[in-house]
């Protein structure tokens, strides 16, 4: 895609982030952080200015859609908007209306809109492995080595998903992180529901919508979506632009969850944030060591089984 098309797709993704009608300061700050972070490596796109254009409504869906000339780029823009709307859970009524208007502006058919929406809904509503109560339950002694292995494997898998051009691969990262945290809590005798897991992620500084926006932004800027528009494999990401992001985030999240539940949930908000930030830096160093495993994992993923893969995690 051209820089103009990339900018239009990102504009649509940003508009999707605000489509829920909840213009809370935390969400604005998270989107601003993503735009500025991506702008550091993509000055030509002037993403901080794009954020302001979207926030102040100087650009709308119709303007952005008009820039996208090919069916593939329009389909990709819609798929990514669906992923943004579902990143923090099943979309609400405002988000559903936004997607309907977006599909109309993009000139998409009903089947073109239905397939990505169904996949995103299935991922957003995938139940946790067992009925969650939020209560402390009996547990066997924690096997720290086994938990560490599980965290590393999940980090490698999410790093591999970063390498795939299909938008549904990006949609699977957050559900996999949530299931990882669930398993860590259960190993320490605490059975969690999705709300409790989202609270831990937010407290540690993992914004769900922001994480997804940064993921797709890196893929767009890195050119991974350029040729395939999320529909066919087309090989791994040239330059592996996104591995350090999702590998490190998943690894740090797993380690923080282990510390938190092993310590009886006594870490305060600042401790959680500081620990997460510190481990992210450590994990970025580990990424290079595990890059061959990440790439090998990416080659073995069947994107047609993404939903089933999440359910089995």
Architecture overview:
The chain is built from 16 helices and no strands. It is mostly helical and 313 residues long. The chain folds into 2 domains: 121 residues, TerB-like (Orthogonal Bundle); 186 residues, no CATH class. Helix 5 packs parallel to helix 7. About 6% of the residues have low confidence.
**Total number of helices:** 16
* Global geometry: globular
Q: Mind summarizing the main beta sheet?
A: none
- Unreliable stretches, pLDDT < 50, 5 or more residues? 131-136, 227-234, 237-242
Walk me through the topology.
Elements: H1 3-17, H2 25-39, H3 47-55, H4 61-67, H5 71-86, H6 93-106, H7 110-124, H8 144-162, H9 167-171, H10 173-187, H11 194-204, H12 208-221, H13 224-228, H14 243-262, H15 269-300, H16 306-312
